[in-house]
TrEMBL record:
This is G protein-coupled receptor 132. PROSITE patterns: G_PROTEIN_RECEP_F1_1 (PS00237), G_PROTEIN_RECEP_F1_2 (PS50262). GO terms for biological process: G1/S transition of mitotic cell cycle; negative regulation of G2/M transition of mitotic cell cycle. SUPFAM superfamilies: Family A G protein-coupled receptor-like (SSF81321). Keywords: Cell membrane, Disulfide bond, G-protein coupled receptor, Glycoprotein, Membrane, Receptor, Transducer, Transmembrane, Transmembrane helix. PANTHER family: G-PROTEIN COUPLED RECEPTOR 132-RELATED, LYSOPHOSPHATIDIC ACID RECEPTOR 5/SPHINGOSYLPHOSPHORYLCHOLINE RECEPTOR. Residues 42-164 form the G-protein coupled receptors family 1 profile domain. The lineage of its organism: Eukaryota, Metazoa, Chordata, Craniata, Vertebrata. It is found in: Cell membrane. Pfam families: 7tm_1. Belongs to the G-protein coupled receptor 1 family. The chain crosses the membrane at residues 29-52, 59-81, 101-121, 141-163.
Length: 164
């Protein structure tokens, strides 16, 4: 616990600065459970529908399908996060499960950010340079870009999560 001091003063107050985890536990658990209940079927449907677009050689479909898989993977970790919150921010599972859950969380976050950038760039190219972009917007390039993003982020996070 850190002591709270007044601005411009060296005097310490008797108040302690600590995060009130107990106060936010129930609302956060409700949010996680609601996201899981709504997100799981919605993402399963999205994975199916975007896969149909991928099969039709839709470039945007590759990015959206990958983003849906990313979200689905994250949703699978929500029961562990909910249990963690329920137990007062105490992890009951193994250290490996903790690292894997954190790895999935951070990897998905960065992969999702990069995929959203790819979607934005693809839409920009399709709208602003529709004729010129026809030759550049190929499904093969979208798959290669997506695989490169996933591998690069996974390798970097593997290094981070294996540091002792």
């Amino acid at each position: 616990m850190l002591p709270v001091t007044e601005a411009g003063s060296l005097n310490q107050s008797s108040q302690d600065c600590e995060a009130p985890f107990a106060d936010g536990r129930l609302p956060l658990m409700i949010v996680y459970i609601s996201v899981l209940i709504i997100g799981l079927p919605a993402n399963l449907l999205t994975v199916f529908l975007t896969w149909l677009q991928v099969r039709r050689k839709n470039v945007l479909g590759v990015y959206l399908w990958s983003l849906s898989l990313c979200d689905l993977t994250y949703l699978c970790t929500l029961p562990l996060w909910t249990d963690y919150i329920y137990r007062g921010h105490l992890w009951q599972w193994s250290s490996a499960a903790c690292k894997l859950t954190g790895y999935i969380f951070f990897t998905n976050m960065y992969v999702s950010i990069f995929l959203l950038c790819c979607i934005s760039l693809d839409r920009y190219m399709a709208v602003a340079y529709c004729l010129e972009a026809r030759g550049m917007r190929r499904q093969r390039y979208a798959v290669l870009t997506t695989v490169t993003i996933v591998v690069m982020v996974a390798v970097v996070h593997t290094a981070v999560f294996t540091i002792r």
